[in-house]
Write a structure and sequence with these properties.
Elements (H helix, E strand, L loop, with lengths): L3 H15 L4 E6 L10 H8 L6 E5 L2 E6 L2 E6 L5 E6 L8 E7 L3 E6 L6 E6 L23 H8 L6 H6 L9 H11 L12 H20 L40 E5 L2 E5 L8
Antiparallel strand pairs: 1-6, 2-3, 3-4, 4-8, 5-7, 6-7, 9-10
Length: 275
C-alpha cells in the first residue's frame, strides 16, 4: 500500500511530467471512483483546464486546476502512468486523462479502491475527504499536548492510535512499525501508559523516519512499486518491518511478527519491551 513517502514520490515525479498540460478529454471506465460528481459533470468541469500544481496532504494527491482541485486517494494499489494517447488501454486503467499534447495520464488500480473528488480550492480543508484528517508530523500543531488530547481516555494499542489518520496523517503500517522501534515502544502498549517523553519521541521519529523514506523514494515491497520509473530504496533501511526471523540490527534478537488489531506487526521484543 502506498504510504506518505510513496505518494510524495509520485507527486514529485508527476510534477515533472504533467504540470501546465491542458486537458482535452477524459475517459472513465469505473464510475464508482468518482465520488463528488456524475461522470459527465466530472468531465465537463475538468476539460479545458490546466494542471497548475500538485500538492499532497497525507496520502492524498491534490491536483490544482485554477480554482478547482482533483483529490486522488490511491488506497491499496493505485498507480499513475504517463502514456501516449494511441497506446491501447490496459485492463485496470480506470480513468484516462487526455492532454492536448498527445500524452495521457492514466489511473491504474487493480482493486478499484481508489477515489477521486472534485473540490473547490478554497474548500478543500473544510470538506470531505480532507476535513477529518489530523496533522502531519511537520505541522506546528503536532505537539505532545495535541497528542495527549487525542489519546485522552483511550486504551487502544499505540500502533492502532498511530494508524488513525484523524490523529497523525501519513503513517501507515510500514512506518508505524519503524517509528515504534525507534521509540522503543511495544506496539501493544496501551495509550494510557504513554509518558510525555513517549509522545515527544513519536513526533521526533515520525519526522525522521518519513523524511528519510521520502529522500530515498519510499519503500518498494510487495505489490507497490512506483509506476513512473522511480524505485524506492527505503526498504534497505527497514529496522523491523518485513524482517521476521532476522536479527535485530541493534541487539541481535530475532525480529518477531504479531497481529495488532488485525495488522501484521514487526518488532524486537528486547528493544521494545511491553510496559
Amino acid at each position: 500500500m502506498p504510504e506518505l513517502p510513496e505518494v510524495e514520490t509520485v507527486r514529485r515525479t508527476l510534477e515533472t511530467l504533467v504540470l501546465h498540460k491542458e486537458i482535452r478529454d477524459i475517459d472513465v471506465f469505473y464510475e464508482k471512483m468518482i465520488r463528488t460528481d456524475s461522470v459527465d459533470d466530472f468531465k465537463e468541469k475538468l476539460i479545458g483546464r490546466k494542471i497548475d500544481r500538485i500538492d499532497r496532504e497525507g496520502k492524498h494527491l491534490i491536483f490544482v486546476l485554477g480554482d478547482l482541485t482533483l483529490i486522488s486517494h490511491l488506497r491499496m494499489e493505485g498507480k499513475y502512468f504517463i502514456k501516449q494517447a494511441d497506446i491501447n488501454r490496459e485492463k485496470h486503467e480506470h480513468v484516462i486523462i487526455y492532454f492536448t499534447d498527445g500524452q495521457t495520464l492514466r489511473y491504474h488500480d487493480t482493486r478499484k479502491f481508489g477515489t477521486m473528488d472534485l473540490i473547490k480550492l478554497d474548500e478543500i480543508y473544510t470538506t470531505h475527504p480532507l476535513n477529518k484528517l489530523g496533522h502531519e508530523p511537520w505541522s506546528e500543531l503536532m505537539t505532545p499536548a495535541y497528542l495527549k488530547r487525542k489519546l485522552a481516555n483511550r486504551t487502544i494499542a499505540v500502533k492502532s492510535f498511530l494508524l488513525d489518520q484523524s490523529v497523525l496523517v501519513g503513517l501507515g503500517n510500514i512506518y508505524v512499525d519503524e517509528v515504534l522501534f525507534n521509540c522503543k515502544l511495544h506496539p501493544e502498549t496501551s495509550c494510557k501508559d504513554l509518558k510525555p517523553k513517549d509522545l515527544k519521541n513519536i513526533i521526533t521519529y515520525s519526522k525522521s523516519v518519513l523524511e528519510k523514506a521520502v529522500k530515498l523514494g519510499g519503500t518498494t515491497i510487495r505489490s507497490y512499486t512506483s509506476s513512473l520509473g522511480v524505485t524506492g530504496r527505503f526498504q534497505n533501511e527497514l529496522m523491523v518491518h518485513m524482517r521476521k526471523d532476522e536479527p535485530c540490527k541493534v541487539c541481535n534478537t530475532t525480529i518477531t511478527k504479531i497481529k495488532v488489531n488485525g495488522r501484521g506487526t514487526y518488532l524486537c521484543t528486547k528493544c521494545q519491551k511491553k510496559k
